[in-house]
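not sure who needs this but someone in the group chat was asking about Methylthioribulose-1-phosphate dehydratase from Allopseudospirillum japonicum so here u go. i didnt clean anything up, its just raw.
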Amino acid sequence: MIDLPFFSRQAQAICDAGRFLYQQGWSPATSSNYSARLDSEHFAVTVSGRHKGQLTPADVMAVDLQGQPVQSEARPSAETRLHAVLYEWRDDIGAVLHTHSIAGTVVSRLQAGDALILEDYELQKAFAGVATHEGQLCLPIFDNTQDIEQLAKETLNYLMAHPETPAYLIRGHGIYTWGRDMAETLRHIEALEFLLACELATLRAMS
């Protein structure tokens, strides 16, 4: 049974996050998807095709950890399974955000390898456990595909083997990151978008 008052609070947190991310230019039009955990077996996720700058609680629905709707005829985001495997992976994850920014899209396309290494940036310390700019943040890059089930398996297998991973990129697509709650996840996405914007500016300066 879904705790309806808690669902309402989580749905509002998703809507508030959507407006912020849209205003930054990181979630244009109907792109992107967001979610927040409800309990050990369910999470709230954005409904497919909704404009992220105009979200209302009616644009958020409850699904189980297989991504199947709970008491709703709406269709969840096509990428709901990518959220689901994150909640399956770690029970301390309370929210997941996926953005489609210019920086995330372009940098992931230009990166030849299967990972982006971020280092020597002060803002790396926005992530828990990172105490100095002298370390590295490794963001894996997965090739874009319409086979979401296969992509979900690939991302989960990678994260199981690399539990320190703070986020990942889908090539030419965008960023996925997570946190203990929506506030921490917003901090992570804001830091990542800044770092990727720096990488993009560096690439432009070197060209």
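also The chain has one domain: 4-206. if thats useful
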